[in-house]
Amino acid sequence: MNLYLNADLTHLLLSTVLGFLTGLEVKTYRDKFHSNSAEDAFFGTARTFTFTAILGFLLYKIDPHNLLMYSVGFIGITLLFALFYHHKLQKNRQSILMYLVLICVYTFGPLSVLYPLWMPSLLFVLIVFILNAKESIHRVSLGLNPYELETLGKMILLSAVILPLLPNRDIIPYVPLSPFKIWLAVVVISGISYGGYIAQKYFFPSKGYFLTGIIGGTYSSTATTVVLARKAKNMGGSWILDASIIAATSMMYLRLIAVAAIFNLTIAQKILLPFVVLSLAGFIISLLFIRGGGKDSNQAQTTDSNPLELGTAFIFAILFVIMMMITQYVIKSYGTSGLEILSFIVGFTDIDPFILSLLTGKYSVTVIEIVSAIMIASGSNNLLKATYALWFGGIKETWKSAFTIALLGVATIAWAFWIEKLY
Length: 423
What we know:
Radius of gyration: 29 Å
Distance between the termini: 69 Å
Structural class: mainly alpha
Largest sheet: none
């Protein structure tokens, strides 16, 4: 006995069920958000949506090649809604939401025939999600800075427009890396920074200082240190702010592990243990500071500085290439000792281009020597942040966090030399 349903029957049943369920969801939406509206405020009931789904399937199957009957049905539904919408306008009501939902329901039939069954099912899930997310979408739209849309466009430009156009072969003299891979590094770093910024601004709008330090460390522990140090100076010092500054640096170690894992898994495995240990040490110390300083009762007010700028991205790409050329020259001319000195000096600048050059380049040094260079750069960068904390926050206000960061930096550099000697 054949237990399999006919394909057309399966598609018809799926379209009918999804249309009916959508109609029920529309009724729920009406009862939840428009319970005080008049009866004619919505176009149709659950039966209307069910018959629309059936009609879409039948009209498509009648002429699946030219779509003449299906187009006539679409025009008919549109004209009917136009009459309904005209009636709404006379009563000062304006919304085409139900028309859009109805058209989505009308496509259930063709989608079930042309695509796998997950496609119309996913469309139904999206309809349910979007209808129920009315309040959340409204809150986001009220709090959304129009500048963020421009920033999102920049992220799409970096990743989906510029990146695919670049050649994936080595064409730059003295740089053993293709423009595609160079720009890919820019996209990855920009994406991590942008993600941390969005999380900090929109997902945790009432964040405390400690959470500010953690999330800020995902995109710039240096900038976060400066912002929190200035706040500490204005407040006359705070254990909570000291803990937050330390947390930003602790998060930097985890961020570097993630970046290394994307570009060079072997190196990521080598730095995993030391960076996790150093990060945990920083978080433990910061938690002890919180325990000694009381609860974080103040809402953090940080600068609204978006890290994703086209100019910044292009400068990063240029610095990335320059650092790769300098690193290659230093290794060729001065060997491992030259790389160690360069790593320490670079730590007092932006270390991301240098670390990416180590992760992606091809040099005449061992993996352990690259790991050591990354750790030295990270350690000296901690010394820079400790200096910033004292400079912008004041010695009296931030000496505890500055001392802890500097101690982590010294420990990182010492561990780097120990690993190099060990292997």
